[in-house]
Amino acid sequence: MKPETNVSFEDTAVAFQYKSDAAIKKASFIFSLVNHPWMSALATGSVRLALMLRLPVEGLIRATAFDHFCGGENIEETEAAAATLARFGVKTILDYSVEGEKTEAGFDRAMEETLRTIEKAHQSKNIPFSVFKVTGLASTDVLEKVQKKLILTPEEHKSFELVRHRVDNICRLAHAYGVPVLVDAEETWIQDTVDQLAYEMMEKYNREKAIVFNTYQLYRTTSLQNLKDAYESALRHHYFLGAKLVRGAYMEKERARATASGHPSPIQPDQAATDKAFNDALVFCVAHRTYISIMCGSHNEYSNRYLTTLMAEEGMANNDPHVWFAQLYGMSDNISFNLAKAGYNVAKYVPYGPVRSVMPYLLRRAAENTSVAGQSSRELMLIRSELKRRRNAR
Asked: Which of 28, 215, 216, 388 pairs as cysteine with 244 (C-beta 3.0–4.6 A)?
């Protein structure tokens, strides 16, 4: 089925209206780099080595990839990016992207920072959501042990109760301020535990509307059915379901682990199956929107356009409060800004944190743009088209 919509993702003047000539030239350099796998591997390898040797490369990183993909090193620094996006109708989701905490004190710091993002969202009409990863608040070993239903040691039991306490603190403040909070997805071997926590919070805080959103990775073979089961459970327990739909972020790791353990892969057999599951999930959520609020977290042009078509077929307004579109800061601006211009609810995930601490995030972005077929090529084509348009307009 070819979606019918009046939204175009080809208008580069709209897509890059918020970028100066210098910024778009920088974007051209970055995507030219990641468009060549060997160059991307060389660059990321060099950065890893420099960081390991503790060489002073933060300034160089900040001036290139960090400034393109991140909003700043702290919440205050993200204000400029949020204000710029807001001028063009695009909202901001502050994403504290520091990873690798291993201690209870570190997990508490991550919780406190997430609470700060909720406070910030409460104060700003330009920040409609907050977000967190449970792995930022918890030991993955404990999460996995809970999922396997193994007996926890007294120390592990206490640790997991602290996880539940941190998650509840976040969701309770989100509910008090009416700021929806997105629970990010994780790997399959801990995702059931994350789901359990998310649904506990939904039953507690989603009585009036969707405040807590769980994330469904549709590259997993079970995710579409999990979404439908979650909807049925929400109906039975009288709360609203918040559903963030993504294709997924851990495919290579998931397949490698399944192969090593001799288990069937939890991943869809091919891209077409993933696309079908994602688009079927859109259909399901729109059809059941009375009790489901949806965030379409996708860089896929077809799926975003398809959702606008589904909304039109159902007679929904472009800015229906049950539906949001979201993309990552620094990527797929042709989708974000053209949807916003057409009046849809659009937000950018804006990561922030100290340069060295967000490097795992930046390295994943480089790998993603290199490995996803056509991703960096499409970005580069649009950027070059805009550079040409600007030259011809002078």
From this structure: 215
